[in-house]
Specification:
Blueprint: E1 2-3, E2 8-13, H1 19-24, H2 27-32, E3 36-41, H3 43-46, H4 51-54, E4 65-67, H5 71-79, E5 85-89, H6 98-106, E6 110-115, H7 128-138, H8 142-151, E7 165-168, E8 186-189, H9 194-201, E9 212-216, H10 225-229, H11 237-255, E10 258-263, E11 281-283, H12 286-292, E12 295-298, H13 304-309, E13 314-318, H14 320-323, H15 326-337, E14 342-344, H16 353-356, H17 361-372, H18 382-390, E15 394-395
Parallel strand pairs: 2-3, 2-5, 3-4, 5-6, 6-7, 7-8, 9-10, 9-12, 10-11, 12-13, 13-14
Antiparallel strand pairs: 1-15
Length: 404
Amino acid sequence: MDKCIIKKIVFITETSFYERDYKRFGIDVLRSNGFEVEVWNCTPFLYPGVVEDVKGADIVYYEHYFEFQKMQDALEKIYKLTQDVLVVCLIQYRVNSYSLFRAISKKQIMYCVISSVLPFSIKKNGSIMEAILNILRKTRDIEALKQSLFCRVPHKILGINPASFVLIGGAYRANDRRDMVGSQTELLFIHALDYDIYLEEIKNTVEIDNKMGVFIDEYVPFHPHYPMMKVPPFSTPEEYYPPIRRFFDHLEDANRTNITIAAYPRSRYEDHPDYFGGRHVVKGKTMELIRRASFVIGHCSTSINYAVLEKKPVIFITTDSLQRSLQGEWIRQMASFLGKGVINVDEMLEIDFKKEMTIDEKAYRAYKNAFIKKDNTEELPFWQIFSNRIKNLALTKRQYENVN
């Protein structure tokens, strides 16, 4: 075997670098394990014209953070990498990012991807024609159609090496043509990145407020992915916030509860009118709020993971406008997996609050195993498990074979 000692980890991202990303990427953990760590932001050329729309106020100016304005600059940086580097690809495998994956493959650099799956991420195999008809029926989006067709082209034909590792949260692995898996790819079952926050938070003692509910905000009308994906929002502020507010009013009046808003991490509600009727809006403390609350309200955010881990009942809600979008189906699928129904707050039907406060423990356990943390895996931080596997990594020559 040829011995390859990994000395540097390079994250390639398609978002600006925030304080929460510094923690989620485990920069300090990786450095404490002896790795150099760089972060490369490719947003400016992957999604030109939308960079300012997706930037938040808590950007971290990490000394080894690089932002590339042109594809050629990123490619030149890749071509200078040596084989003691491992790249963590946090960019989607798309038409616009193909050249980056191709350059990594030509240099025979090891890379890994993260498989983060939720119930609505589960994809079924089908013919190309079925995929075309499904996309056109749901979105009439030519860009999405082009992307779907592109992902069906075998990686080898396009000169893309499979990933050396897929870092998996939970036991379920999506059957997705973008997951870059080949015969030599190692599946490393770790856990969802949010589980690290849970491990830290449970060290603290909290007092549960039996009259407090938490709404997991998704910044629906303003989510930064809309301009990046060149699609209109699933709902406008005028369609979305008024029925949400009325639902909160009804819930609070009928059950003597108080709803606190766990704001989306990259939201900027300070730049908007008061959309939540004077309710307390808190950013950056979603896990803490869920631990304190007696119940959770949400759509289909990954932060529902925290409610599952804390065994908190979840009230799933939708609106007329969301029902007409892809998100309506996503909400239904997530709720169904947890044994719950979905309340359309535009209809304001009678709500059995007592029933909503129950949980299906079997469903919660299955959800945790499938999407958060596989049973009997290590109770260590995500990037510590990763580091333990990568340190003194030995590779066979076959793993370095060029696809050409």
